[in-house]
Amino acid sequence: MNFPGIKEDCETFLGLFQATDSVRYEEFLTIWKQMKFNTIFHGGMRNLESNRFSRDLFSVVSVFFLPPYTFQIRVGAMYLLYGLYNTQLCQPKQKIRIALKDWADIEQFHQELVTAQHLDAVYIYRQLRRMRAFYFTGMPITLNFKSQKSIIPEDGNEAFLDVKDKISDLITTETLEEIMNIQEHYQKTKCHFSADKSQPDRSLSLIREDFTDNLQSLVEEFQLWKQEKKAPRTKTDDEQEGTSQESEVRLIASFILPKGLHANLSTHLLEFFVILIYILGFRESKTSGTNKIKNLQCSDTGSQIQAPPAGSDGVSAYGG
């Protein structure tokens, strides 16, 4: 990249868009006008220099349009590519370089937009396709005779990266099966110390017997919540979220703890996690049986796609 400051400006723009916690085009347009980002091309450059500048600018922004960046950052990068493509001063217009290996990710991203009913984002994407803004290539960058040692890969902003789903990595089918075997062994051990060998004493019932089934249900609800999180948010959603946090905590506690024990959450939830860690400590112990676990997938949609208002900045959804 021969033009310093491009990456910093783009990251600043995407950081402001990320702070809106929205993927609406209106939010992007507000930031675009506030930063007067269309003037980025008004540097008094000659034609050849302007062409190189536009290509470098597209190459920087297109990185944020691809994984592993978050869904919101990718939408913001797509909006930014759309605005920059329409406001560039090059004639003919410089195109956005997309490697063939990345096209599958872009098509999947488009399907996610359609599924989540982000109609404004779908409209902008289809406008880019209609204007033939993408230039499909074999490699992300132009190959030349530079030595490999002189090509330094640039690191993206870590704040824009998509957070890894640690819950799905931690609680897998094998983990649930192992927890079930450990719980079965735990139940047998309690029976051994009880007066009635057929069932454990009630004083030893510190966790619910259907703990594994409830844990599986919570994981499925979490996956569903992740899908719904990609849907557009409204002010009503934010108000409902604030009032339902306490009820959600009590609901989770009722799944895990015995009846009547989840009234005092501060004490018994702590005891639950201690017990869970203690149970997982039996990982190296001998477990009996090979029980199998059965098979463990937006609001503000709007009725019509309305193009954002046109302005002198040249980023109307009509490509003005």
Largest sheet: 2 strands, parallel
Mean pLDDT across every amino acid position: 74
| Strands side by side in the biggest sheet | 1-2
Sheet/helix structural class: mainly alpha
Overall structural domain count: 2
Q: Roughly what percent helix?
A: 40-55%
Organism: Engystomops pustulosus
Region (Disordered): 301-320
GO molecular function, one term: sequence-specific DNA binding
GO biological process, one term: snRNA transcription by RNA polymerase III
Account of the protein in words:
With 320 residues, this protein is mainly alpha-helical. It has two domains: 6-160, no CATH class; 166-284, no CATH class. The chain has eleven helices and two strands, in the order H-H-H-H-E-H-H-E-H-H-H-H-H. It has helices at 6-19, 25-35, 47-64, 71-87, 100-115, 119-130, 166-170, 173-192, 211-229, 235-256, 265-280; strands at 96-99, 134-137. Strands 1-2 form a two-stranded parallel sheet. Helix 1 packs across helix 4 (71-87), helix 3 (47-64) runs antiparallel to helix 4 (71-87) and helix 4 crosses helix 6 (119-130). Mean pLDDT is 74; it is low at 281-312. It comes from Engystomops pustulosus. One of its GO terms (biological process) is snRNA transcription by RNA polymerase II. Residues 301-320 are annotated as: Disordered.
